[in-house]
Write a structure and sequence with these properties.
Elements: E1 3-6, E2 13-16, H1 24-44, E3 53-55, E4 62-64, H2 76-108, E5 113-114, E6 121-122, H3 133-154
Antiparallel strand pairs: 1-2, 3-4, 5-6
């Protein structure tokens, strides 16, 4: 979802997705700096070649490197991803709940319902299935009778 974001580096606003932290200019500058840093590390021998062995940050087991950014073994990666997604999702929700909740409440609200006892149309309150206290009492009595008959039939 594209929204107006603020660049973490220069402070300018720009249109970006949920994980866009930098404007296009700063993103390009960071990409060039990271490429240069990688070239320096590769020349000095500080990179991890694919297929080499490394230690999982989560459990300490040894795994085979399949990606340059890999930090976890195959067992721990899904767990870490779920934790990270949970953290970012809940923080996004708390920052935007005033905008998110009203449409959700409207969608979840049931408009009209039929009373389960007298079959009259009514607008439900708090998930009720009957239109009045009298219908609720009658409905509850009927359910109790049916439950008792069912219980007696099982013996």
């Amino acid at each position: 979802m594209l929204m107006t974001r603020t660049c973490n580096s220069c402070g300018r606003t720009f249109q970006g997705g949920p994980r866009a932290y930098y404007c296009p200019e700063c993103r390009d500058r960071r990409r060039r700096e990271q490429a240069e840093s990688y070239r320096r590390r590769k020349r000095s021998g500080d990179t991890r070649p694919l297929g080499s062995m490394d230690k999982c940050e989560r459990c300490g087991n040894v795994y085979s490197v399949m990606s340059g950014n890999q930090r976890f073994c195959e067992k721990c990666q899904p767990i870490h991803s779920a934790e990270y997604d949970r953290e970012t999702s809940i923080s996004f929700y708390h920052e935007n709940k005033e905008r998110i909740n009203p449409p959700r409440k409207i969608k979840r609200r049931k408009t009209n319902s039929t009373c389960s006892w007298c079959r009259k149309e009514f607008e439900p309150v708090n998930g009720s299935v009957t239109c009045s206290d009298e219908c609720r009492r009658q409905h509850k009595n009927r359910q109790a009778r049916e439950w008792s008959a069912k219980k007696a039939g099982k013996r």
